[in-house]
Fold these 3 entries.
Entry 1:
Amino acid sequence: MANDDTPRGIADRPDDVIYGELADWWPLLSSAEHYLEEAHAYRALLLDAGDAPLRTVLELGSGGGGNASHLKLDFSMTLVDRAPGMLGVSRALNPECEHVLGDMRTVRLDRMFDAVFVHDAVSYMTSLDDLAAAVRTAFVHCRPGGVALFAPDALRETFRETTNCGGNEDGARALRYLQWLWDPDPTDDTYVADWVCLLREGRAISRTVYERHVFGLFARADWLRILADAGFVARARPFVHSQVEPGSLEVFVARRPR
Ligand SMILES: C[S@@+](CC[C@H](N)C(=O)[O-])C[C@H]1O[C@@H](n2cnc3c(N)ncnc32)[C@H](O)[C@@H]1O
C-alpha cells in the first residue's frame, strides 16, 4: 500500500500505469529496434555458456517483447510477464511466441528449457528474498547443462545516478519521457526510477504521467551467493554495448550442472 511518505501520484503497485493502462503506448516509449544490439550480445552470451543444443528459451519479465523480437530469430521463445497489457503488446509483435501470464517469483510451467533469460525486469526484485525466488524459478525451468542469463540494470558496486530521455512517434501519437535514476537511501537495497512522460495525440498533449519504479540494488557477492544457493555455477561478466560505458554494467551467466 502507498504510505504517508509516498510521493503524490504513486500507485499501490508502482508500475500500474505505464505497464497497465498505458501499455499500448509502450512501443513509443521503448521501440523493438532499440533492443537490437543488446539482444545480439545476450544471444552470444547464451550460446557461449550453455551445452548445445540451445533451442528453447524462457524469458521471465519479457515486457513488450523487444529483446524477444530479435532472439526469436534463433530460439523458440516462451515469454512470461505479470502485466496482461504488456503481454498484449508482445503478442502483437511476436505472434509466433508462447505468452504466459505469471510472476517470475512464483510461476511454474512444469517443463524445462535450454536457457532462461531475465532481462531488466529482474530489477523489480527489491529484496534478496524476491531475487532468490526469481533465481529459483529460473533454476527449476533450466535443464541440466542449460544456462540462465540475468541482466539487471544496475549493481551496487557500479551504480551511478543518471538521467536519460527518449520517446518515439507513430504518426497520430507521440511520447517523450525523462527518466531519473537515483538512490534516495544508499544504505538500503533499492534505488528508484522517477519517470515523467508526455503523451501527445494529434496536435495536443493529452496526458502527463509521473510514476516511480523501485528497483533492487544488490552487490555482486549477493548475486553470486543467491545463484550458488539455487544450484547454479555462476559468474559475472562485463556487459559490452556501444552505449554502455566500459566496466559500468555486468550480467550474470549461470549454468545448471548436469
Ligand atoms: C521494462 S519492461 C521489460 C522489457 C523487456 N526487457 C523487453 O525486452 O521488451 C519490464 C517488465 O517487467 C515486468 N515485471 C515486473 N515485475 C515482474 C514480476 N515479478 N514477474 C514478471 N514480470 C514482471 C513488468 O510487468 C514489465 O512488463
Note: The chain has two domains: 1-27+160-216, 31-156+218-255.
Entry 2:
Amino acid sequence: MKIAITSGKGGTGKTTLSTGLFHILTKYFNYNVQLLDCDVEEPDCHIFIHGQKSASYPVSISIPRINPELCTYCGRCKDICAFHAIVMLPAVGFIEVVEDMCHGCGACSYVCRDQAVVEQNSMIGSITHYDYYAKDEFIEGRMNVGVSLQTRVIRETIDHANQKSLVLYDSPPGTSCPVVAVVSKADYVVMVTEPTPFGLYDLKLMTETVKQLGKKCGIVVNKAGLEYEPLYDYIRDQEITLLGEIPFKKEYARAYSKGEILPEKDDRLKKIYINIIKSIMNGKAV
Ligand code: SF4
Ligand code: SF4
C-alpha cells in the first residue's frame, strides 16, 4: 500500500505527520515500511528521522550541446522542442540550448541530420537511502539548487520504493504538477489541514485535485482547538473521513522546532497517531 501525505500549503504539519507516522509504524507495528521524502525542492524529513546512510544515487538528464560549426540552422531541433528550450538566430550564427528549460527528452538530437547535437549528462539531484531502526528505510529525493525539473526528481525518487513495503510519500504542498506526480502514485491520500480560513481554502483545492485523480482520502486536522467550525462543516459536507486531530499546544511547536518526533512527546499524541494508522489500515477511512 502506498500512502501520500500532503497539504494544500506549506507549514501545515505535513512533514511532522509523515515522519511521526513512519516512526510509529516502524517502532510499534509489524510492517516493512519506507518513507520517501518527495518534497524534493525542500526535503526536511531528515530533520526528524535520523537514519544511517546506506546508499546514494545521482539523478541526471542528458542535456544537448549544439556545435555551431556543424549546425546548418535548418531549425528541425527548434521546431520539435516542446519546451521551447532552443534559441536560434541564424542571421548572427547563434544557436543554444537553454538548460533550465530543457527536459532532456532527446528529440532534438534525434531529428538533427548534421550530427551537430551532442548529449552530455547533467546532474539535477540525488536520492539517498537511510536505514532506520535497522529494518526500515527512509529515502530522500533532493533537487539541486537552480534546477527546475522537480517532477523528474520526484519520479525517480518514487521508483526507489520497494513494492513489498508499506510506503509513505511525503508529498510537496499545493496542487501543482509535483503534487500530482506523487498523489497519482498513491493508493490512499492523507490531507493535512488546520482550522483556519486559509487551511479551509487550501483543503478545498486539494480535495478537488484528489477527487479528480479518483483517490481514496482522509483528513488530519493539525492545530486542532483553534475553533473554526466551517472547516468541520466542509469535511462533513464532503463526507471525507476525519482520521484524527492533533491538538494545538506550545510544547508541540517547541518539540517540532527542535526536530523531535512528535508522537513520542506524550501518550495522548502517540494514541492519536496509532488511531490514524488503524483508521487507514482497517479501511474505516476508505
Ligand atoms: S537540427 Fe541540427 S543542424 Fe538543424 S538547427 Fe538543429 S542543431 Fe542545427
Ligand atoms: S532535449 Fe528535448 S527539451 Fe531539451 S532541448 Fe532537446 S528537444 Fe528540447
Note: The radius of gyration is 22 Å.
Entry 3:
Amino acid sequence: MTKKVKIGSLTMGGGSPVSVQSMLCAHYYDIEGNVQQAVELEKAGCELVRVSVPCEQALQLIPAIKSSVSIPLVADIHFDPSLAIRSVEAGVDKVRINPGNIGSDAMATRVIDCCRDRGVPIRVGVNSGSVEKELLQMYGGPTAEALVESALRHVRLIEERGYDQIVVAIKSSNIPTMVSAYRLMAKKCDYPLHLGVTEAGTVRMGTIKSAIGIGSLLLDGIGDTIRVSLTGDPVKEVEAGRDILLALGLRKGVEIVSCPTCGRTEIDIISIANEVERRTRDLKMDLKVAVMGCVVNGPGEASNADIGIAGGKDCAVLFKNGRIVRKLTGDYVDQLLSEIHRMKN
Ligand code: SF4
C-alpha cells in the first residue's frame, strides 16, 4: 500500500479512493476565465485542480481560485524555483515540479525546504521530454527505466531534506512505456502515484489511450490519482476520468449496459440509451441499468443488470434482474427513471 499524502482537504494514497484531477487551460492573465473553469471542473466532479504558474503575474490566480472552489489547488511550476516558493506562500495545496527543469539541486532544495516547512506536498512530475541527458544516454532514450531513475533521483533529494509528502508521476505518450514505467516505479517506492498518458491527443483518441494506459495500471492495483490529458475542454477530462473509474468498479455510479442493436430492434435504442446515460450521470448510487433492443433476447442478455428496458412492438418492457416486471407505453425513459429513483429511496 502507498503512503498517505494530505493535499488540502484530500487524502491521496494509503487505500484512499482514486481521485480524478484536471488542469486549467485558460490564459494565465485571464483570472476570471480560470476561476470560471475551476468552478466548472469542480461541478463536473474534479477533485484536485492544477494551474500553471509561468510568471509572477500568474500568482494572482492562486487566491482567486482558492476563494472560488473548495477542491485543493496545485501549482504547476517550470524553470523558476522562486515561483514555486511564492505559490506556496500564496496558499497552494501542492506543488508540481518538473525535476528536469527546476534548476540545480541547490535551487530545488529551496523549494523542498519551503514545502516541508509548510506541509505542502510535492509532485515529482517526470515525462519523456524532461529526462536528464546522461540518463537518456545511459538507457538509450526515454525508456521506462530512464523515467523511473529520473524520478527516483528527485525523490531521494526530497527525502534527504527530511520530507516524505511526495507524489510521483512518470508520464509518456507511449502507452507500453508508460505502463512499464509505473509498474517499475510501484516496485521501487511507496509514494502515491499520479497516473496519466502525456500528450494523449484529442478527446476521442486521448480518451482511448488514457483508458488503456490508466486502466491497465488500475487493474494491477497501481495508481492513487488520475488525470486524463485531452486536447479539449478539461471538463471532458474529468468525465473521462470518472468513467474510467466507474468502468473498473472503483467509483460508485450508474453503469449503462446497452446492446449494439440489430435487425430485431423495435425501438430507438440509440437515443434512449444516450438519454438514460445523460439523466443518470449524476446519481450517486451503484446500479447497472440495461437498455436493450428486443424483448426476445434483451432481458436474458442483460440479466446481470439491476433494472432495464427492452423494446417490443410499439411498446417496451421493464425488467429487473433479468425478469420482466411490466409492459411500458408512452415515455419509456421517464418511467425507467422514476423506477430508478424509487430504488434510491
Ligand atoms: S438485445 Fe435484441 S436487438 Fe439488441 S443486439 Fe441482442 S438480439 Fe439484437
Note: The domain at 254-344 is CATH 3.30.413.10 (Sulfite Reductase Hemoprotein; domain 1).
